[in-house]
Specification:
The protein is 82% helix and 0% strand. By secondary structure, it is mainly alpha-helical.
Length: 259
Amino acid sequence: MKAIFGLLLAFTLSVAGGDALAQISDVNSAINKAGRQRMLSQRMAKAYFQIGQQVEVARSKKILDSSVSMFDRQLVELKNFAPTPEIKENYLKLEKSWLAYKDLLVGAEPSQENGRKVLEISEQVLALAHQGTLQFEKLSTGASGRLVNISGRQRMLSQRMAKFYQAIAWGVGNDKSPGELEKARKEFAAAHQELAAAPSNTQQIKESLDLVNQQWLCVENALNQKAGRGKRPFAVVATHRERILEEMEIVVGLYEKLK
């Protein structure tokens, strides 16, 4: 319940209308928002693939719709906050790629043909969103900026693994998909160890990271199951990835407040 409340609160603050420019108050806040764009790029593709396979359709549609709206709003915030010409230019490039991505996501019912295009352009959007996050991190003067970036990247990796898992299961993955899935798994595990060992961790951060680890073990078991044995592994991946995301939203917010 705590995790779900934390996610709902974080997302509500992120998408509240009418005060978008006031949302980003400092560099750590910008790193958080920029990092969340990375996550959303993967989350939308994952939801699209789940809808195409009839996996938790109603929930997946809600995830896709809310993620599209959030990406739109945060892109406006980040473009307006951009403190350097280089960062501004990057977000103008991201805007262009995003418009093409959005057309695929909302233009028609999911199909395998468009699914392959979604997989490809989700990588382009991710690369630009990641570049923006790194640019903001370079402006950070404290150690907390790195922790916000790493923990924020965990949100993305949780969705990235699910994206490739669902893409492979639906038959829209490419020859790189299995390797990218395995790479994301290893990066998530390594980054979790780094975060768990951070000297600045508060008790609340430690507890949240412990909960993430518990969900991660469940996902690992599901990922190790072969496709083709019903939809239970797909549902497990979908459910536990959401729980990991919920808890990591809390962790990122806590790191953002550290000085």
